[in-house]
Amino acid sequence: IIVHENSALKLRARQAFTDRAGKQRTDGEEWLWRASGAFLPDVHEEVLGVVHAHVLTDKKALHVKALSSFTDAFGKARAAGQEWLVTIDDAPTHIPDVYEKVVGEVQITTLTSRQYAVIRDPVVDGSQRFGQKQLRKGERSFFLKPGERLEQGIQNVIVLGEEEALLLTATEQFQDGETLRKAGDRWMVYGPSDYIPPIAVNILEKRKSIPLDQNEGIYLRNLTSGKVSMIVGQSYMLKPDEELYVKHVPPVVESLLEKQGRDDAGVEFRARDPTRVVAYRAPHNSAVQVYDYKRHAARVVFGPELVKLAPEEEFTVLSLSGGVPKQAAKLQSLALLLGPDFMTDVIVITNIDIQSVEPVDQRTRDALQKSVQLAIEITTTSQEAAARREAQRLEQEAHGKLERQKILDEAEAEKSRKELVTLQAASAAVESTGQATAEAKARAEAAHIEGQAAVRQAELKAQATRIEAQAALAQLTARQESEVTHTRALHALELDKARKLAAIEAGKLESVVQALGQDVLIDMASASEDARADLIGGLGLSSVLITDSASPLNLLETVEGLSGGK
Length: 566
Fold this sequence. Notes:
Layout: E1 2-3, E2 7-13, E3 17-18, E4 24-25, E5 30-33, E6 37-38, E7 45-52, E8 54-55, E9 60-66, E10 70-71, E11 77-78, E12 83-86, E13 93-94, E14 100-107, E15 109-111, E16 115-120, E17 123-124, E18 127-128, E19 133-137, E20 140-142, E21 149-156, E22 158-160, E23 164-170, E24 174-176, E25 179-181, E26 186-190, E27 193-195, E28 201-208, E29 217-222, E30 228-232, E31 242-244, H1 251-265, E32 279-282, E33 286-292, E34 297-302, E35 305-308, E36 313-315, E37 318-322, E38 327-333, E39 335-337, H2 362-526, H3 529-538, H4 555-562
Antiparallel strand pairs: 1-6, 2-5, 2-7, 3-4, 8-13, 9-12, 9-14, 10-11, 15-20, 16-19, 16-21, 17-18, 22-27, 23-26, 23-28, 24-25, 29-30, 29-31, 32-35, 33-34, 33-36, 33-39, 37-38
């Protein structure tokens, strides 16, 4: 087998032995042969396959995980389950060991000078800090180590304009320059500037300066004191302890404000921003009443005028009669027209040209205004009295429902207490018998687990013994088969040798007999015993038997004579 560059052979031991590198291998152990060149597997080695190397670059790393405790190719001890990166700083290529699992490839993370990233669960000095964060600013490149992850990905530096700011809060105590920030502190960073938030800082929102015309305003609420205020006619940047306050108005007021807005803006009408100051344009020769619920006082504004509501103020909605014939509460309005141009009564007037009617005397005008204000106040007082009576009725009804609910709740609570006492008694009985039952079950379960463990251990031991016996039997069978084959081959060689020697001897005797001829053999047969012995010795024979078919021969006696018997 040829092992090429950047590859290795994955081997496994068939049985315990010492490999060619002098290292002791156990049965079933796996390892890699990394040396390039020709490789001849040992009889005790099994080739499982070829493992190819992963090529590493300055932009790509390899994420690996240890399947069991071992020492890696770089001489570092790895614990089972440990994960790490192999980069080009370690080696240009990496062949995963048999105890390493390739989780995947990791691409490099690059930050420009205008970017930053927050790393969750960072690895510091080889130890992972779970639950912590680490800020990394550009310009730099790095690989995310196993377990590390980006929070919100790669983020750009926050650029603040001249009219912009960031509302920040501290998640933990830290030193911000010369200022010690405590957890929960709120502050702002104003532009123009670049900003990268530290780990202990959370960005609540990005704020912009609110431009306001002289007739525009916003409602604010102080988060510390809860006080609601109003800012009118100037550009304003919210402070760290301030927020926009949403002012709600009754639906009827909302519809009247919307009607005026649609009449003025037409198709370009936009819904009212509830954080902006509520404003109403009182028409000429009209009166609008505003009630302050904080001071419990009302004020009347005469038109033309732009009426702005303070945070604690509300418009007084007027219910006016209208229609022909007159109907009570036909119209609802925020302004009371002082007349007389809005009247619908039919009056016949001849030969009079009146453009307008206004009191000339100032005292008359003041008296008229006071009478209108008094009428509005009387209407308001009657409405407030009716509202108070309705509120008292509702309060008494709610009080009665509350008392009834209290009685029902007390009865239900008494019933629950009774059930609780019963359950406590049953629980005490169950607890007294349940503890002994639980202990007995626990002991039985422990004994069962120990028995299963012992059985499993015995099964494993029997399996190991069976495997060892099978291996020994296979080895003995192979050795015996080899010996039998060798013995058979030797016997076959000896038999072939004896057969060839016998053939040679037979041929030799035949040649001698042919060379002597028949006459010589007859003379030998009729010669004396001494002469016959000399002739036989001269021919190189130990003994010879010459007979014909007419003379019977006792073979047993002949054999005894040839063998030297009596």
